[in-house]
Amino acid sequence: MTRRQLGFVFGLLALLTGAWFALRSDGLGSGPAGGTLDLAAAVGSDVSQIRIVEPDSGVIQLGIDDGRWMVNGYVAEDSLLEAMLTRMAALAPARVIARNPANHARLGVADDSTRRVEFGPAGDPAFVFLLGGAGPEGRFVRLPDRPEVYVVELAAVRDLDRNQVQWRDPTIASVDTAALRRIAIKRGTDPFFEVRRDQSGTWRIAGALADTAVIRLFMETMMDLEATGFPADSFVFAVDFDRPDAILNLYSGVLPTDPPSWSLLFATVATRPEVLVRRADDPIAYATDPATANLLVGGRSRWRAAP
Length: 307
Prior knowledge:
Layout: H1 3-25, E1 36-37, H2 39-43, E2 49-53, E3 59-65, E4 68-71, E5 74-75, H3 78-89, E6 94-98, H4 104-107, E7 115-119, E8 127-135, E9 138-142, E10 149-152, H5 154-157, H6 164-167, E11 171-173, E12 182-187, E13 193-197, E14 203-205, E15 208-209, H7 212-223, E16 225-226, H8 233-236, E17 246-251, E18 262-268, E19 275-279, E20 285-288, H9 290-297
Antiparallel strand pairs: 1-6, 2-3, 2-7, 3-4, 4-5, 6-10, 7-8, 8-9, 9-10, 11-16, 12-13, 12-17, 13-14, 14-15, 17-18, 18-19, 19-20
């Protein structure tokens, strides 16, 4: 090999070595400024507050209060939060896929068009990242004030796209139906009528046998009664629950003086297809469909067994 060829080879090696060190110094190792981001470690395992700031400046505030997750003052669905945090805790370190700020808008991680996710107290979060768009390998995230864009597993962060309503717990009532002894229903201005379980376990209405199929479906529904939606507060305020269209009281006690274990109030509005329902001891209103409402507070004739 000639001297000139050797010089070319050594020059090329020097160039490659310099490029390698440049990439190293630009962060191709691990860590927030490097080629990987350990989102699981950054979020941590003891999360009790999450704040999501939407591109339109709307805020979703998730936090634990008295042992339950809440979302903007409403009860949230605990299982959603716990499942999401479990998936995030199992995340492998995310790799960097872009460094040029010119790519931020295309990847959905520009400051003015992305969701900002904060873990920790509002105003002093322990960790923050920006949640962007999605690609074939997953979801794009970026740390504020950093140019690097990382890709994380889509399933781990997909729930962060939920709006406030989608975080809420749809459970209206979870009843221990095996303990029920009496069902009392009031429709409009009519007096209450009752369906009772006798000592043999047989349900009766006014002494006659109750329809076992109706009783079975009623019990299955009340074990886990879930809302079909959440009406807007402005709409609920216009509904007079002091004069509901129907009342459902469930009793576990047998004495006439025993208070109801559950009391649900039902209201209908002529201009709306759904039926509103709320617990008597809770001002939060839920929506249910007319078929479910009819099952729960239908007239006395539907409770009687066919002759």
